Amino acid sequence: MIVHVVLFSPKPDLSAADRGALLDALATASKDIPSIKRLRLGRRVKHALPGYEQMMRDDYEFALMLEFDDVAGLKSYLQHPAHAAAGHHFTASASKSLAYDYEIVESLITDH
User: Is 70 helix (H, G, I), strand (E, B) or coil?
Assistant: First the structure.
């Protein structure tokens, strides 16, 4: 499985309408691009316990994770017109972002 991970923070002055347009573009992409197997969006959780949280240089408010069967599916997504449309909204909306792709294997932990 390939996971496309995007960390981002919206611009502080982003309007509710622009936030909605970004979410609509993501929803459209998830429906229109068949190689997307799963799309998840979440807001960062802060726990304030001492440790790694305080060592992070940057704070990204949201994480977007898209799952694909393989690299060919990721490439299909990246080249799809719906991705270009979502990317336009994303670029206009984000104050900062990172995107990385990972090959994920199933957990080796079997008992819990």
Answer: coil
